[in-house]
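#lab-general

N.A. 3:47 PM
ok so I finally got the sequence cleaned up, no stray characters, all 169 residues accounted for. can someone with queue access submit it? mine expired

B.Y. 3:52 PM
send it over

N.A. 3:53 PM
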Amino acid sequence: MRNTSFASMHCSLAQSLELIGDWWTPLVLRDLYLGLNRFDQFVTDLGISRNLLTDRLTTLVDGGLVRRTPYQQNPVRYSYELTDAGQELVPILIALTAWGDRWATPPAGQPLRFTHTTCGKVTTATVCCSECGEALQMDEVAPSPGPGGRTAPGTALIESVLSGLKPKA
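B.Y. 4:20 PM
back already:
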């Protein structure tokens, strides 16, 4: 169960975490990307309890990241697939996996590799500038308020940028 809700925070990251910010959800999304699509497959692969999985899938369906389609009647059983919004999360999950490969590699080594099918090469995801293609580094990116920027819960950064101050550490 979630202990905290970010629903009232005026922050795109907080709103994203409201949908995917528990331990199991990124793993369910990963399994969908890898081709699992049925409830029992998730339970078997992840070792997640059925009631917890039901809650996570319901949140993903309600949030528009996953589509649920009946494949059997009596009893009704469903298959699951990523929606367009869910598919857009896959590169983010691949980038997080690349970070894990670098900083939290399992003892036996990198468990999964990704091949870019366009060029046929094994790839390591990086986050790049949408304008110049250069890899983004923390000290080379400056935040500024967007059109929806305002002072509200979860927006200390916007408040400090609006006042011309650097955020406090």
